[in-house]
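STRUCTURE:
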């Protein structure tokens, strides 16, 4: 108390009992203590560390999934890989096609992939729309694309 309040506490004498202590038989005291200890029930414990994980309802029906990368990522690295094809599924474990191999993965890091019906049309459109401009070699032997300005598009 001296360290906290920088002064001593004073207690009045009425707090202290000067009279005789009632005599209690040690056997009776132990019996009463046992009875009271039997009546004590433990409290339910808290479950620390058990986190609820959201599982998307569409995960049970999807054909492809994204897999979360749980490692420390580099800057601008995507948090998910995929889409990966689902080969087999159970309640808690999915078998997916990952880099050409079938891998068993728990449902926690999975996310359903909503893909268009026909992926081949999209791939064909993407390759047709890509600009195949010739690469230039600079003095430092780096390949660069030619500079395109907006005024070049004013025909």
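SEQUENCE:
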């Amino acid at each position: 108390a001296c360290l906290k309040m920088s002064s001593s506490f004073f207690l009045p004498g009425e707090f202290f009992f000067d009279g005789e202590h009632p005599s209690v038989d040690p056997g009776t005291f132990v019996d009463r203590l046992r009875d009271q200890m039997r009546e004590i029930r433990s409290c339910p414990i808290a479950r620390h560390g058990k986190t609820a994980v959201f599982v998307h309802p569409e995960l049970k029906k999807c054909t492809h999934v994204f897999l979360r990368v749980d490692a420390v990522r580099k800057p601008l690295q995507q948090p998910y890989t995929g889409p990966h094809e689902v080969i087999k599924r159970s309640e808690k474990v999915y078998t997916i096609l990952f880099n050409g191999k079938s891998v068993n993965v728990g449902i926690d890091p999975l996310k359903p992939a909503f893909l268009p019906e026909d992926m081949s049309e999209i791939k064909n459109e993407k390759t047709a729309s890509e600009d195949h401009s010739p690469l230039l070699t600079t003095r430092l032997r780096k390949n660069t694309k030619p500079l395109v300005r907006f005024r070049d598009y004013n025909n």
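REMARK: Helices lie at 2-5, 26-39, 119-129.
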